[in-house]
Amino acid sequence: MKHFARAVAVVITLLSLSACEPDDHAGKPRGSQTLWDSYGVPHIYAWRADSMAYAFGRAQMRMHPELLLRLYAQGRGRGAEYYGPVFEGGEPFPTDMVEVDTLVRTMGFPSRASLWWQRQSPRMREYLEAFVAGINDQAARETLSPAARAVLPVSAEDVMAHTLRIFFGYLSGSMTTGAANCSLVYPDPVSTPVNLIGGSNGWALGPAKTVSGNAMLLANPHLLWGGTHTWFEAHFASPEYSIYGATLVGLPVMRIGFNERLGWVHTVNSQDGCDLYELKTSADRYLLDGVPRDYETRREILRVRQPDGSFREQPLTLRRAVHGPVFDKDGKRYAMRIVGVDQLQTPGVLEQWWDMAQSKDFAQFRRTVGRLHNPYHNIIYADAARNIWAVFGGLTPRRSGGDAAFWAEPVDGGRGDLIWRDALRLDELPQAVNPVGGWVQNSNSVPWYMSKPALDHGRFPAYLSPLTIPLLREQRGIELIEQTPRFTLDTLMRAKHDTRSLMADRVLDPLIAFAGASGNADLVAAAQALRVWDRRSDAQSRGAALFAAWLAVSGGEEGLRFLEEPDPAKPYGTPAGLRDPEHALTKLGEAVGLFRQAGLPLDVAYGDVYRFRRGKPGSARYVDEPANGASESLGGFRTFGYLDDQDGRLRAIFGDTFTVLVEFGNPVTAKVINTYGNSSNPQSPYYGDQLPMASRNQMRDALLSRQEVERGAVRSEVFWR
Question: What is the free-text note on the cofactor (predicted)?
Answer without folding.
Answer: Binds 1 Ca(2+) ion per dimer.
